[in-house]
Amino acid sequence: MHRNSHGDRVLNAHVIEVLPQVGLAWVLAEDQHEWALSGNLPGLNLQVLQPGQQLRLTLRTQHGMELPTGCH
User: Fold this and answer.
1) C-alpha dihedral over 4, 35, 41, 53, to 10 degrees?
2) CA 16 remoteness from chain centre
3) pLDDT, tens digit, for every residue of 2-39?
4) Which bin fits 8, alpha (ψ -120 to 50), beta or left (φ > 0)?
5) Whose CA is closest to 17, among 50, 62, 42, 45?
6) Which domains can be identified in the chain, with CATH numbers?
7) 13 close to 43: Cβ distance less than 8 angstroms
8) pTM
9) d(CA 72, CA 67)
10) 26: burial class by Cβ within 10 Å (0-12, 13-18, 19+)?
11) What single-letter DSSP state applies at residue 39?
C-alpha cells in the first residue's frame, strides 16, 4: 500500500469474480477488504477482467469513508 500524489491509498488487489451481466467485479485488496467494483470505474474493463487477475485499486477518503476511484 502506498499513497499517490493526491493522498489516495493505492492497494494491490486480486479479482475474485467478474459479473459482467450486472456490471460488477468482486475483488480482495491486500488489506483483506473486499470490494464490489462497478463496471464504470475508471480503468476497469469487465470484458477482459478474469478471476485471479491482479490490479491496483485506488481509494479516496470522503466524509470518513473510503471509496474506489479507479484501478489499473
Assistant:
1) 80
2) 11
3) 777 667 899 999 999 999 999 999 999 999 999 999 99
4) beta
5) 50
6) 2-71 (2.40.50)
7) no
8) 0.86
9) 15
10) middle
11) T
